[in-house]
Amino acid sequence: MLIDLEHLHYWMCAIRESKDYLRTLDAFYKGQLRSKEWLIENLEYYIYPEVNKMLDFPLSVDIHGGWVGVLSSMLFQSDIPIKNIRSIDIDPACESVASMMNKKEEIEGRFKAITSDMCAVKSEADLIINTSCEHITQDHYDLWLSGLPKESLIVLQSNNYVIPEHVRIADSLEEFKQQSNINVLWADELDLPLYKRFMIIGKNDKV
Ligand SMILES: C[S@@+](CC[C@H](N)C(=O)[O-])C[C@H]1O[C@@H](n2cnc3c(N)ncnc32)[C@H](O)[C@@H]1O
User: Fold this and answer.
1) Which of 10, 60, 109, 194 could form a disulfide with 125 if both were Cys (CB 3.0 to 4.6 A apart)?
2) Residue 134 and residue 161 in contact, taking contact as beta carbons nearer than 8 Å
């Protein structure tokens, strides 16, 4: 996907003004960017033919574990019509970086970075995204899922990358489906040089 100059400018400001800019730069590894591009490509592909009838456009979006706001910025620049995005992260250092990363849309009143545990934020957005599934325990995930509405479209990502911060990886897409416990509408995996990324699009209406 193409990143325009105005957004690129804000990305650079966000990195430059980060207290720990090396940590912010972790969000720009090729695998991280490609995983988000993959999410958007599949959402675009999936949303138009299948979900068009289910969702009202433009979409309200909540990103749980939204980190420094790169996915938010990429979504705003995609072909998916976005009304607004809230990016929720438990790490207080993320809020100012994500706000700068999405400064254009923040000024327009379409972006808000929130410091909170994902379980403490009530989500009623059309689209609810969590690409940080590997960072929360199964109990924490189950609690988070139990608070989500049945109507929203849910997008989840995890991976099989063994590092200390990853408290709940999945060895396979099948295992990720079991962990996720949602009604799966679409699922796939992406081979990256160091790990596999898994993604599920679905709804919290499993009976
Ligand atoms: C390394 S980052 C993102 C990794 C993910 N693969 C991605 O690219 O989106 C994981 C984020 O999840 C956040 N996080 C972990 N537990 C959380 C929780 N309970 N509520 C909200 N955010 C959480 C961390 O603070 C961190 O910013």
Assistant:
1) 60
2) yes
Predicted pLDDT at 46: 76
Which residues are within 8 A (CB) of 41 and not within 5 positions of it... i.e. 6 or more apart? 1
Domains of the chain, by residue range, sit at 5-203
- Is the pLDDT at 192 greater than 90? The verdict is yes
The atom of ligand 1 lying closest to the CA of 157 is 6
User: If you average pLDDT over residues 30-42, what whole number do you get?
Assistant: 96
Q: Atom 6 (ligand 1): residue with closest C-alpha? A: 132
> Tell me: the pLDDT tens digits for 113-145?
999 999 999 999 999 999 999 999 999 999 999
Cβ atoms of 200 and 176 within 8 Å: the answer is yes
